Amino acid sequence: MVEMSLRARRSNLKISYIIVLLLAAVLYVSTCAGGVLWQDSGMFQYRILHNDIQGNLGLALSHPLYHIIGSGFKYIPFGDLAFKVNLISAIFGAFTIANLFLLLRLWLGKILPAALAAVTLMLSHTLWLHSTIAECYTLYTALLIAELIMLLQYEKTKRILFLYLLAVFNGLAIANHMWASLAFACYFVFLITLLIKKQINLKHIFLMAFFWIIAAMPYEYLIIKNIIQTGDLGAVISSALFGNGWEKTVLNSSISKKLIVENFLLMAYNFSTPNILFFFSGLYGLKKLSPSRSFGNVLLAMLILFFVFAFRYTVPDRYAFFLPFYCLTAVLVGVGFDLLFSSCRNKISISLVFIFALLPIASYFAAPVIAEKINFNISTKRQIPFRNDYKWFLQPWKTNCNSAEQFANEAFKTVEENAVIYADGTTVYSLLYAQEIRNQRNDVSIISFHPKRKNPLVFNEETVPELLEQKTVYVVSPKKGYCPQFLLEQYEFEQIGVLWKVNKK
């Protein structure tokens, strides 16, 4: 009888997990971008097109596991290649939500708090946005919450198998993004504590290390390959930790008033609902509801580390680096909901809470309109043709978002035969994609120093004067950081359509 009841419970758990997974997948796939994208997303699409698992921005920005998975997604028998790459984010975004639901369902043993947390995270701006464009972040969040599930199951059962699985998931996460090193630090302290208490032994530690090394192999392969090729161990380790030229931002310890204000605005926009108050009650009640002191400590330590890392990070797209913190915030929202409503089964109150969970959708409709009307500064450095930055950054859905494709089409209509276009890292991938996938204007030479490819022409201060005698040369943007400095200093620019023609002074 007990065994039948246990089977029924497991069956119900699987069914509810699948339902949540499908609901999240429907939302994210239906709002997913349908084609080629700007900047890093375009770069990921281009790298997957060429099976490039390393890139050229440093090892920390290689994300090999994501690109290996992307190489498999290329063979989906329907849809444009760019759309298939975007689907990676949608699918793993859905797994993130389903894993969060499972974590709280196993932890609290109740559907309502797990469902509320799942809806809260599913509709949060940053996760929804990055579930609709080509990015490696949702793969990481899915793995992060899988790690917490394994940690929870170990604390509940004391079965060493779950620690081995924890090592596997964290190794995979390392192979995807160096975010995982912050979680690794927490698990390392946790395991040392278990070793000191003699709850595990050195054999278990060595086996966990073995499984972790195997799972992280894609990243380790790149590190070893670069050490062999360059012979410069220090440079490769620096690249693996910080990428090329990002050490100062990664290790930044200064915080300005502007940064503080922007960060709190970002967090408020992600959880624009009164339900965020459950986070604070969950934080307060974590010790009471945690299955063990160790589990609560690890969760709290990770919450703090991810928050501090993102809060003082200064890269332009730092809003994305709050994602692990948002996932843990949603966990505590579920805990807080359970704590406050465990003794109160008022249906009206519970219904209101779930209605409040939907409020962010309304804010995503209103915010771009209001921000554009008052000319709110969203810290973009330039206006990109066909892209409304307020909608692009403030609305998470990307249905019918084809601004990058429009730009490429218009650029190729603008230029003469055998023209040269110098493109920056934001715009170059849409042009290359149009050439290589859609066979558009293969006579045009696309020059850029962002993608990992050989430029079709030698383009520098010495060659440009002769090049101008033979061809028409354009740049996408005559602004510092988006155009070679020697061009800005020695030439004039004439706007023609979406491009700028380079002329002699």
Give a description of the structure:
The chain is mainly alpha-helical and 505 residues long. It folds into 3 domains: 2-361, no CATH class; 362-394, no CATH class; 403-504, no CATH class. It has helices spanning 2-30, 39-49, 64-73, 81-108, 111-122, 125-130, 137-157, 161-176, 180-196, 202-215, 217-230, 233-242, 247-250, 257-270, 277-289, 293-311, 323-341, 347-356, 359-373, 389-394, 403-414, 428-438, 464-470, 485-490; strands at residues 420-422, 445-447, 473-475, 491-496, 499-504. It has a 5-stranded mixed sheet with strand order 2-1-3-5-4, sandwiched between helices. Helix 9 (180-196) packs antiparallel against helix 16. The longest helix is centred in the N-terminal third of the chain and has 29 residues, at 2-30. It is globular. The N and C termini lie far apart (89 Å). The model has no long low-confidence stretch (mean pLDDT 92).
